[in-house]
Design brief:
Number of domains of chain B: 1
Radius of gyration of chain A: 20 Å
Helix content of chain A: over 70%
Number of domains of chain A: 1
Helix content of chain B: over 70%
Oligomer: heterodimer
Largest sheet of chain A: none
Largest sheet of chain B: none
Radius of gyration of chain B: 18 Å
Structural class of chain A: mainly alpha
Largest interface: A-B, 31 and 22 residues
């Protein structure tokens, strides 16, 4: 793929800069699994690796390159980086792994950080939902989307925001890592439904109101990809959330009810 | 369900009488939303994804029901599984909830969303009256079936509260 202008070259250099932390995160997780004395579920390592891969595909390589000029390709990258990637990463319980691998004083420091007021604010389900879907409304309905393709640093910032807000929202709703301030199930379910609604309204809105610089046909296809792909990822999130309830509300008498 | 007829199981049935309705209702609403999405939007292409003349209120209402539909179908099924593992499933009551959920969503979709909010129509470039009548009468029929089923279980609850 031949770069169209100088911004593209800076852009791909920046993409590599974005990919580096992802690779570091992958290696650190693997390292923690290997050096840990107690066994770590293999499924979680697979989830983390797949999550990093989903984010990498959205950040570097052919799909990321095409998403600069094609809105449908952008839509696929968007779902990978903001929804599927974060879902897989959250289910891999990285904080739990870090807490049991780090030396005790460092782990205590991490706990203090996670319990601090700013972090508690950032991981509140409503705050994460607003950051997530609010950021997307801003990106697509203001001129931000068009500007981000001309200015690599802004493009990078949008990537970081999409990934982090996706992660924080998913963690707030179905996180498996320790969270002393986790909201009730009903609360999280309500926030999730409202988020899904806002998300699907945005996709339909984009169908009729393409972001600046996006041709109508591309906007129609791209918004439908966003709509249906987001539905699939959200379906998994709903199943995980409901399964938590199902497992937690297991009747205590079940073991004695059915003698062999 | 081998123990369904024992007295303890029957007692659990009545204690979970509400849960049976809630589970059925959620699943009914979810299935109605799902059928609307797959059959009428995807397969028949009668409905439009978005016909671009929808006012904001209609779009928001559609988004909320779409999201709630997904959630409801999954939550309804998990509640169903929970009733089963507690031997508390009461099929007639569950079906009553299901039909009321189906009918209520379809009636809301056919009156408020299609007509009042003009979200989209059932089909385009045809005389709508027959479609609208079929759509809404089917919804009312579902509701009637649901109410009758629930009425039957209700009378059993009153006749024999321990059952």
């Amino acid at each position: 793929m031949v770069p169209q202008h100088a911004a593209d070259e800076t852009g791909s250099a920046l993409d590599l800069l974005l990919a580096a932390p992802l690779l570091v995160a992958l290696l650190l997780y693997w390292l923690a699994v290997v050096v840990g004395r107690r066994p770590w579920p293999r499924s979680r390592t697979v989830l983390w690796s797949a999550g990093v891969l989903a984010c990498l595909v959205a950040t570097v390589g052919p799909l990321a390159e095409r998403s600069g000029t094609s809105f449908p390709a952008h839509a696929v990258a968007h779902v990978l980086l903001g929804m599927l990637g974060p879902l897989l990463l959250v289910l891999a319980a990285p904080v739990t792994l870090a807490l049991r691998t780090l030396p005790t004083p460092t782990a205590r420091g991490l706990v203090r950080l996670l319990l601090s007021a700013p972090v508690r604010f950032l991981v509140h389900p409503v705050v994460t939902g607003v950051l997530n879907v609010g950021g997307l409304w801003l990106l697509y309905t203001s001129g931000l989307y068009a500007r981000a393709h001309g200015e690599p640093w802004l493009h990078g910032l949008v990537h970081v925001h999409v990934l982090l807000s996706g992660y924080l929202f998913t963690a707030a709703v179905i996180g498996v890592d320790p969270n002393r301030h986790r909201r009730s199930l009903g609360y999280r379910a309500t926030v999730l439904v409202l988020f899904m609604a806002a998300h699907s309204v945005l996709a339909k809105y984009l169908y009729a109101h393409p972001p600046a610089g996006v041709p109508a046909a591309q906007a129609e296809l791209g918004s439908m990809i966003m709509y249906y792909a987001a539905d699939l990822v959200d379906l998994v999130v709903v199943v995980v959330l409901c399964h938590r309830w199902y497992a937690a509300s297991r009747p205590r008498t079940a073991l004695v009810e059915q003698p062999a | 369900m081998s123990t369904a007829r024992t007295s303890t199981a029957a007692g659990q049935q009545s204690s979970s009488a509400t849960r049976n309705i809630v589970s059925g209702l959620l699943f009914g609403v979810g299935i109605a939303a799902f059928v609307d999405e797959t059959v009428f939007h995807q397969l028949l292409h009668w409905h439009h994804f978005y016909d671009k003349s929808t006012p904001a209120a209609g779009l928001v209402s559609d988004g909320l029901f779409h999201a709630f539909g997904w959630f409801a179908v999954v939550a309804g099924l998990f509640l169903f599984a929970d009733l089963r593992r507690r031997h508390g499933l009461w099929v007639r009551r569950w079906l009553g909830g299901l039909f009321i959920g189906l009918g209520a969503f379809q009636l809301y979709d056919g009156t408020v969303q299609h007509k009042l909010m003009r979200l989209h129509q059932i089909r385009y470039d045809v005389d709508l009256l027959a479609y609208d009548l079929t759509w809404n009468l089917a919804a009312v029929a579902f509701l009637v079936v649901g109410v009758v089923l629930l009425g039957q279980t209700q009378s059993r609850l009153h006749r024999d509260p321990a059952a």
